[in-house]
Design goal:
The protein has helices at about 1-5, 45-75, 85-105, 120-125, 140-150, 150-160, 180-190, 205-215, 280-290, 320-325, 380, 390-410, 415-425, 430-455; strands spanning about 20, 25, 30-35, 40, 170-175, 195-200, 220, 235-240, 250-255, 265-270, 295-300, 335-340, 350-360. The chain has about 450 residues and is of the alpha/beta class. It has two domains: about 35-45 and about 50-390, 3-Layer(aba) Sandwich (Rossmann fold); about 390-455. The longest helix has 30 residues, at about 45-75.
Length: about 450
């Protein structure tokens, strides 16, 4: 902990060093305590709120497994089920129940058991960290990293080697967005690093990593979407690291967009499968990487370039990525591209080959520091400013009013034609317009209810 504390900074005000306290760290300037979860520093800018949100999500995920198991009981009540199908559903239900027990034990450090909200409440009130982050986000990566993925893990490390001279020292290394941690582990164990600090957003991934790198063996179920055979729809995997990790390997929970680290603290920063999936525009994020590096430090990137920003201008090509990196205080990046296997589970018909884009670039000069990342506007965070009536909100308000009126017409007796006649009588639209509008609305509601019942 003492070695890691040298690198940590307050993600709220950037103060460093932080005070080491029993069970975590404290920023005296902000008067905020950052706890530790199973020995892993919890370094989110608002530690209490983020911990509460993750507890909600974890609790919901456990409720989801119970809900799934209950829905399978309904299916098993169908006397017309084929014998082979019944065996499969019974086995799958047993796997769900065992998985819930395993996850509940693993997530004990988050005090998930202290939450008692029911399933429907969490469907309605689920909080949104980033909307793509939940218990099952990258869950399959756990099995790839520590179960069946030797070929993929070796291919990933090979790409890191391809942009690093074999004799080069990586020094004090930071891996941002490390997921379940296997690539960071391999870098630390097989390349020349003085220390490796690993940051990720998802507590389940790092709780698994913490167990296996310490020598524990875990067992969790893999649930392939397209199982290869009858036995492959729920596969109990044994998860383990090849060896206990050597000294100098540190796990940190936090947000890569508010990295809780002192400026200029690292010789190397590695970003695996990250720059194209974060919400921040690449030039800003590149400047954040620049600030974390010492003079002449090195940025190593690995992954695809599948930018999916709403704005076309932010969906960068490889040529644009190279130019942005150079514009943000780095040398012209050395690039290596290769096609490697990706998520090719031995139990799944899914899996693909991905062309990855790896580069290494040295910090030549400081970049202009970007403003501290703000995930939400002040009128949401503080609650003291008027909520702006944006065009999108205006449209949503009108749509919600219409949907609410349609919902009020559902009484278990009216048909679509009956509801359309009322809309026409209210002079909201003609019956010929109302019928397809109501049908579209009801299809949407039906699909949503089907998705929720299958959670």
């Amino acid at each position: 902990m003492s070695e890691l504390s040298e690198y940590l900074a307050c993600p709220r005000c950037d103060k460093t060093p932080l005070n080491v306290i029993d069970g975590g760290h404290r920023c005296k300037a902000c008067k905020v305590d950052f706890p530790s979860i199973e020995g892993i520093p919890w370094m989110f800018a608002d530690p209490e709120a983020s911990l509460g949100e993750w507890r909600n999500r974890m609790h919901m995920a456990l409720q989801k497994l119970s809900h799934e198991a209950a829905s399978l009981d309904v299916e098993l009540g169908n006397e017309e089920l084929r014998q082979l199908t019944r065996r499969r559903v019974e086995r799958y239900k047993k796997a769900l129940e065992q998985q819930r027990s395993k996850l509940r034990k693993l997530l004990q450090p988050l005090e998930v058991q202290s939450l008692s909200g029911n399933y429907e409440s969490y469907l309605a009130l689920r909080t949104r960290l980033p909307s793509d982050q939940g218990l099952n986000t990258y869950y399959a990566n756990i099995h790839r990293d520590w179960g069946w993925g030797d070929d993929e893990n070796e291919a990933s490390l090979k790409q890191i080697r391809s942009v690093v001279q074999d004799s080069a020292s990586l020094g004090n290394t930071l891996v941002l967005g490390a997921g379940a941690g296997r690539l960071a582990y391999d870098i630390h164990m097989q390349l020349d690093t003085a220390s490796t600090t690993v940051l990720d957003f998802n507590p389940l991934l790092l709780l698994v990593a913490e167990k296996v790198i310490s020598g524990e063996r875990l067992s969790l179920y893999e649930f392939p979407l397209a199982p290869k055979s009858f036995e492959d729809d729920a596969v109990l995997r044994n998860l383990a690291a090849p060896k206990i990790v050597r000294d100098g390997f540190h796990l940190v929970l936090g947000d890569a967009l508010r990295p809780p680290f002192a400026p200029g603290g690292f010789d190397t920063v590695v970003t695996p499968w990250l720059i194209d999936i974060i919400s921040e525009d690449l030039p800003k994020f590149a400047a954040r990487i620049n600030a974390l590096l010492k003079p002449d430090g090195r940025w190593i990137n690995f992954g695809s370039l599948a930018f999916a920003a709403a704005e076309l201008a932010r969906r960068y090509t490889p040529e644009e990525v190279k130019a942005i990196v150079a514009e943000c205080g780095f040398s012209d990046p050395y690039v290596s591209e290769a096609t490697i296997p990706y998520m090719c589970s031995p139990s799944s018909r899914h899996g693909r080959r991905e062309k990855v884009f790896s580069f290494a670039a040295y910090k030549e000069r400081d970049a202009a520091p970007p403003a501290r990342h703000r995930a939400l506007p002040d009128w949401i965070v503080t609650g003291q400013e008027p909520v702006p009536l944006t065009p999108a909100f205006r449209t949503q308000a009108m749509t919600t009013q219409i949907y609410s009126f349609m919902m009020s017409l559902i009484d278990g007796k009216r048909t679509i034609d009956d509801m359309a006649a009322i809309l026409e009588k209210q002079r909201l639209m003609s019956k010929s317009e109302a019928v397809p509008a109501i049908r579209t609305f009801l299809i949407k509601m039906h699909d949503e209810s089907e998705r929720q019942s299958g959670l």
